[in-house]
């Protein structure tokens, strides 16, 4: 650090880099060729030659990042900033050495006194904990805590937002636990909850991976199977019902009904009502046996 003729300090790049190293964020500056002028932290995602004198200076992200996709994104975003003069912010996911991390990237153009862009200043923050927490909150908001399946909110969201883009026809199955009230009265609600939980597990085992399974409420479930005809739905239903649920030697069953929705124009609620009616018809037949 030197003084000019007026006695003011002149801060060179090395000095600025030195004082910024104590901050937890990674701060960098790039020139108009997208090459690093300085970078306060060398994070572990870099591709180095492992020598003591290796430096990031003079290199672009395409040269130093292990993750080629994120390297390309960083380089393209730099080019866009230099062209448009507008900054950017985004979060990237990095999977390396069996570890998933999320980094927040903030970049802004740097201008000289003539308003000409002379480079890019940026900030990299590790936001892994924050992103994972947000993902967990979102998961909990869409998950039934008893069964681990989608809850009613996620079912309604699927119906309104996802269903139109699914592969048709879609098999719709409604499943309901048999004699749950009787089981609750006889064995207690803890056993009743276990019955609901195990029913959800049996459905997950019996239906294909592409099926969307929701606990729609109480002891009722909705299963949506994209790209499936009625005969396939009935085969999955039969497989699940034959398994049944066994709790402490007590055999418990559930009933299902199925219908098909063939296009986004059809009313999903009518199809659900058809499946629901068939399910209750099956329940009535069981009671008469």
| Low-pLDDT windows of residues | 6-11
- What class do helices, strands and sheet pairing give? alpha+beta
How many strands?
Answer: 13
Q: Kindly, what is the distance between the CA atoms of the first and last residues, rounded to a whole number of angstroms?
A: 94 Å
User: What order do the helices and strands follow?
Assistant: EEHEEHHEEEHHEHHEEHEEEH
CATH domain fold name of the largest domain: Alpha-Beta Plaits
How would you characterize the largest beta sheet?
5 strands, antiparallel
Task: Write down the CATH class of the largest domain.
Answer: Alpha Beta
* Number of domain units: 2
Number of helices: 9
User: Which CATH architecture of the largest domain?
Assistant: 2-Layer Sandwich
Share of helix, binned: 40-55%
Rg over C-alpha atoms, rounded to the nearest angstrom: 30 Å
- The whole-number mean of residue pLDDT values reads 90
Q: Can you tell me the CATH superfamily of the largest domain?
A: Reverse transcriptase/Diguanylate cyclase domain
User: In percent, how much strand structure appears in the residues?
Assistant: 25-35%
Shape: elongated
> Order of strands across the biggest sheet?
4-3-7-6-5
Task: Describe the overall structure.
This protein has two domains: 2-132, PAS domain (Beta-Lactamase, 2-Layer Sandwich); 143-288, Reverse transcriptase/Diguanylate cyclase domain (Alpha-Beta Plaits, 2-Layer Sandwich). It has nine helices and 13 strands. The chain has helices spanning 13-20, 61-64, 68-84, 128-142, 152-162, 180-187, 189-206, 230-243, 268-288; strands at 2-3, 9-10, 26-30, 36-39, 88-96, 99-111, 117-126, 170-177, 212-217, 220-226, 245-247, 250-252, 254-261. The strands form four sheets. Strands 4-3-7-6-5 form a five-stranded antiparallel β-sheet, sandwiched between helices. Strands 9-10-8-13 form a four-stranded antiparallel β-sheet. It starts with a strand and ends with a helix. Mean pLDDT is 90; it is low at 6-11.
């Amino acid at each position: 650090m030197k003084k000019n003729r007026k006695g003011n300090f002149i801060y060179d790049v090395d000095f600025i880099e030195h004082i910024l190293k104590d901050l937890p964020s990674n701060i960098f500056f790039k020139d108009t060729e997208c090459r690093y002028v300085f970078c306060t932290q060398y994070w572990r995602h870099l591709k180095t030659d492992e020598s003591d004198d290796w430096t990031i200076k003079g290199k672009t992200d395409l040269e130093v990042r292990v993750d080629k996709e994120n390297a390309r994104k960083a380089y393209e975003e730099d080019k866009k900033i230099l062209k448009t003069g507008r900054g950017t912010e985004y979060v990237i996911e990095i999977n390396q050495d069996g570890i998933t991390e999320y980094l927040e990237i903030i970049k802004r153009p740097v201008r000289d006194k003539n308003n000409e862009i002379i480079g890019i200043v940026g900030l990299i923050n590790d936001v892994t904990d924050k992103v994972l927490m947000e993902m967990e909150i979102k998961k909990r908001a869409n998950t039934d805590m008893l069964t681990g399946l989608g809850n009613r909110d996620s079912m309604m969201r699927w119906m309104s937002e996802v269903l139109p883009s699914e592969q048709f026809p879609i098999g719709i199955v409604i499943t309901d636990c048999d004699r749950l009230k009787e089981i609750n009265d006889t064995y207690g609600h803890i056993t009743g909850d276990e019955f609901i939980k195990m029913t959800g597990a049996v459905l997950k085992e019996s239906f294909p991976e592409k099926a969307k399974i929701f606990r729609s409420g109480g002891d009722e479930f909705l299963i949506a199977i994209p790209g499936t005809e009625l005969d396939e739905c009935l085969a999955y239903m039969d497989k699940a019902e034959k398994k049944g649920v066994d709790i402490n030697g007590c055999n418990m069953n559930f009933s299902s009904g199925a219908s098909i929705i063939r296009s986004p124009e059809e009313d999903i609620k009518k199809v659900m009502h058809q499946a629901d009616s068939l399910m209750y018809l099956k329940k009535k037949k069981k009671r008469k046996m």
